[in-house]
Fold this sequence. Notes:
There is one protein chain. By secondary structure, this protein is mostly helical. It has one domain. Helices cover 55% and strands 9% of the residues. The protein has five helices and four strands. The chain has helices at 2-16, 33-71, 82-110, 134-150, 184-187; strands spanning 120-124, 127-131, 168-170, 177-179. A two-stranded antiparallel ribbon has the order 1-2. Strands 3-4 form a two-stranded antiparallel sheet. A hairpin with a 2-residue loop joins strand 1 and strand 2 (127-131). Helix 1 runs antiparallel to helix 2, helix 1 (2-16) packs parallel to helix 3 and helix 2 (33-71) runs parallel beside helix 4 (134-150). The radius of gyration is 21 Å and the shape is elongated. The mean pLDDT is 93.
Amino acid sequence: MQHSKNIRKKVQNIEDAVLIKTINFENQEIMGITEFAEYFDTHREKILAELVKDYQNIGDTYLRSIEECTFKSNSQNCEQMRRYYYYWERKIFNAITKMIIRAMAANKALWRGKPLIKMNATYSHPEMSYHPTVEELKTQLDKFSSNILQSAKKFGRWLDGYCKIFEEQIDKDTGEKSIRYTFYDELN
């Protein structure tokens, strides 16, 4: 029973996670584009790292322990627990979905307050130049919004009938680690 409560708590933590760092508009100065990206991305990455660790513990620790106590097996592939694995995977998916939706709403609400990003303009007859350029600003803001949705890529899916996450694979071309099947695929 305690493990079930722990799982429920971890899933609720995912659902309640605040991916977009709050801003006190009264005290916040306007940031440069790099400072803006760091302000939000550092916070989001820190929160996600904690959540992913908790998510991994759901299958690796709690469900495995329930399986061991109930069926004297710790394979993370117990046929009798298959429906229970599906139950928790659906709960986790719903929690990740709510977390992402709330973060996207928070992103939208950010732009209703005071200006957040400093943009410098220089006039040298007959041209006006901006830093960052409008294109750089658009690219960075698109990346910021995209990163919210891409947060779901941190949560690897379980193998069918298991409570075990697909293993990370290393891309031969880039050398980057990634999980082949994630909740991002379901959200996108």
